[in-house]
Design brief:
Chain lengths: ~280, ~350
Amino acid sequence: MKILVMGTSHTAALRDAADWIGATYPDLDVTYFSLPGFYHARAQMNGPWFGPAKDDDKGRDISLQMNGCTAINLDDFAHILHIGSRFSLVKCSQLMADFDILGHPTRTGRPLMTRAAALGLIAASVEQDVATRSVMADHDPRFTFMPAPYPLARSRMHGAGHEPALSRLDARDTAQDWADTYSKVIQTTLANVENHFLAQPVSTLAAPFFTDNIYALTEDTADNRHMNASFGQAVFAHFATHRLGLDPVTHITAATPFAGRQHDSAHPASSRQNAI
Amino acid sequence: MANPYDTLPPTAFWRSGVVTEQPKAVHGIYRPKYPIGPDSKIMTAGSCFAQHIHHALRVQDWSVLDLESPNGGFPQEALAKYGYGQFSGRYGNIYTLRQMVQLLCEAFGISKPSDPVWQRSDGRFIDAQRPTVEPDGFDTPDMVLQARNDHLKAVRQLFEQTEVFIFTLGGTETWMHKDTGTVFPTAPGVIASPRHPNAFRFHNFTQNQILRELKVLRDFGRKISGSFKMLLTVSPVPMTATASGMHILSANTYSKSTLRAAVGEFAQAHHDVDYFPSYELITNPMSHGAFYGDNMRNVRTSGVDCAMDTFFAAHDANNAPSKAQTEAHPNDLDPACEDVLLSPIKEQTTETGRAS
């Protein structure tokens, strides 16, 4: 079965786990196609081909460097796992952090908003985000979207790479409820256009909206958004289990060398059930 | 012998001031008394047309205050659905000056309006002073009051920060609580009903009453801030319906003329009160109604641009008129107006009650 893993720079975590994925799922023929977020957002469909526009010389150069080609034919794949959309997380998390919800027992003195209004605004933003990908994925059930990974837990610390809104939200007892709600909104919105949603594996989370520091791509704390190969393994295993229905255990062959660091949570058997 | 008109400028004559002018750019119609700039802290409020003004100022990145909307650039249509981003506060349309003064008095703890919570036919509760900001309504009256208290805090902060208050007067007709004089933006039964609908009556403000409200508003603003200034406009959007007993055309003319006369008189009397002629620009006969949509009520984007281009050109020499035309209002020709809800009632009456 031919699988395409595509998306923004966050796809690199899966690309870095390619050897492990190949060894663990030998029946799958996995292709990777990624572009940095800026170029990904500007990329276009040309018939079944996805890639930087013909007049986007820089984007095409980058695509050649990263993918060995300037475009990918989506028709070739039975399933497409898209990684890296943010689904308006920044603005949504600001709203979640900076308003109290009318009727919720906890009051912090922040401005009040009804849950209906908050959900309406979040849903509208996610819809807007999904709509930007409609040319590529609208009503195409082959597409499964996993959002960009939540920032590393260390981004709660002040300094370079600090995530202020998510950190404010982390200090509130509503964070888990918002995380669940936000995931459901994305899932529903994608379902409306026949796309699938893959939540970030619970095993990779340190807290609602934060990824465990062990998945850091780099020790540089200025980059708290990009993850390593272990994270890529966990995500792909999650995808294979829930979207492809593959029993990962039967596919794991002898230990295979792979780039990056292996973590228990990369083993699907250790992954807790997640919404998909 | 020269007559008094010999030395007047072209703007003083109908032919040169109107007939030969482009209706999209009527020269000399707005000469500001005081400067307003991108950094002026502007508060907007009023009837539907004020939404266009607020939107145009925001698009131009002027310092229009908005203390209640969430940050981050949520879709404008979604914000508007919940009453955010339409004005500087989440107070919805404020059609009359009395309602504006009443809101400020409430925000500053001077008085409380009566019957603040009304109930819809579906059992949900609404804030009677801003009946559409929560389309789903509230579960309980207490929730309405909690949300209102929070809103009032924001209104108070907003008004305290305001340097220029742009208020668009919508109409003269209102519904008033008989005993307390509290006014409401909608009539009982249109969106929701108070507990005692018979306690309300129709009221049509006179010019003198409007002048009194203007004085209260100005005095209030100057008490909060010595540099408080007002820019008044009259909405060119005609009324949807009238309860005055007059024909709607006559009722609308009465309403707009009364407002225009009161505002003109008041602005002439005060150096810190100015009038912006959005009404004249949109209703200019030389536009042949082109600034109105098909229903001859909603103002087209071209009309809004005409008004706002005039405003920006007068206040910001570096701002080319076309810069105001950067983004259509999300509801383009149809800002949120509660009085539109009256239309179906009338149509139903026409269909069932009498031959049209």
